[in-house]
């Protein structure tokens, strides 16, 4: 079976992790691996069966996490792609995103985007959701040791955008991302800022720009 997993993953380590997670949770077998070697069909099946596999409460939470990360990824893709701005002084591309964003969305920001932030930190339920979704996420640590998350699978965002239950929440996720950033900016301008406000503004302002 492991040979089938490696073959289906096409030497992509993150996809191997996702397939192993699928085997553990749903008993995906050789026939399924051969049928879904391209990956996209397995993503579609995974998203479509979240309620059946985990129950509606956890499924809804997983969708919140996936949609928030998909929105952040889409914003980043726009800044580096179609929305890239040219520096008129040098003629080079002006990319306002902090290079550290490559490591992902810090967990404190993800908690704010998904409404799982609580006074003094992160709602433990978000940690449960992140552990449940571990096969589909990439986890990294920045220089300060903060844990950050991104979608860990190539083309997984496309599957999220095509899933009816997830895609219906995307506009709200973009609005949440923008409103958090603008609220933090207003608080800073009014002299009401705190450390959390600066953290949110610094992380999200480049994505909103």
How would you describe what is shown here?
- The chain is mainly alpha-helical and about 210 residues long.
- Helices cover about 60% and strands about 10% of the residues.
- The strands form three sheets. Strands 3-7-6 form a three-stranded antiparallel beta sheet.
- β1 (about 85) and β2 form a beta hairpin.
- It starts with a helix and ends with a helix.
- Residues about 10-15 have low confidence and may be disordered.
In short:
With 209 residues, the protein is mainly α.
Main attributes of the structure:
three-stranded antiparallel sheet; two-stranded antiparallel sheet; mainly alpha
Radius of gyration: 18 Å
What is the share of helical residues? 55-70%
SSE pattern, N- to C-terminal = HHHHHHEEEHEEHEEHHHH
What structural category do the secondary elements indicate?
mainly alpha
Q: Strand order, biggest sheet? A: 3-7-6
Supply the number of helical segments: 12
Principal-axes geometry comes out as globular
Largest sheet: 3 strands, antiparallel
- Average pLDDT confidence is 76
Q: Report the β-strand fraction as a percent range.
A: 5-15%
> How many beta-strand segments?
7
Low-confidence stretches: 8-14
How far apart the termini lie comes to: 47 Å
């Amino acid at each position: 079976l492991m040979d089938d997993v490696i073959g289906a993953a096409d030497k992509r380590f993150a996809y191997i992790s996702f397939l192993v997670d699928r085997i553990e949770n749903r008993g995906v077998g050789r026939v399924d691996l051969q049928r879904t070697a391209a990956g996209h069909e397995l993503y579609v099946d995974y998203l479509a069966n979240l309620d059946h596999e985990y129950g509606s409460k956890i499924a809804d939470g997983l969708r919140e996490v996936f949609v928030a990360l998909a929105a952040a990824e889409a914003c980043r893709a726009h800044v580096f792609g179609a929305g890239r701005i040219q520096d008129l002084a040098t003629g080079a591309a002006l990319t306002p995103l902090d290079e550290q964003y490559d490591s992902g969305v810090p967990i404190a920001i993800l908690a704010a985007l998904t409404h799982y932030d609580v006074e003094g930190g992160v709602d433990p339920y978000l940690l449960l959701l992140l552990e449940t979704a571990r096969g589909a996420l990439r986890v990294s640590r920045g220089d300060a040791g903060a844990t950050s998350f991104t979608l860990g699978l190539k083309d997984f965002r496309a599957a999220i955008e095509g899933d009816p239950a997830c895609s219906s929440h995307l506009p709200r996720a973009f609005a949440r991302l923008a409103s958090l950033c603008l609220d933090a900016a207003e608080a800073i301008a009014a002299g009401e800022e705190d450390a959390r406000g600066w953290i949110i503004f610094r992380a999200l302002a480049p994505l909103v720009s």
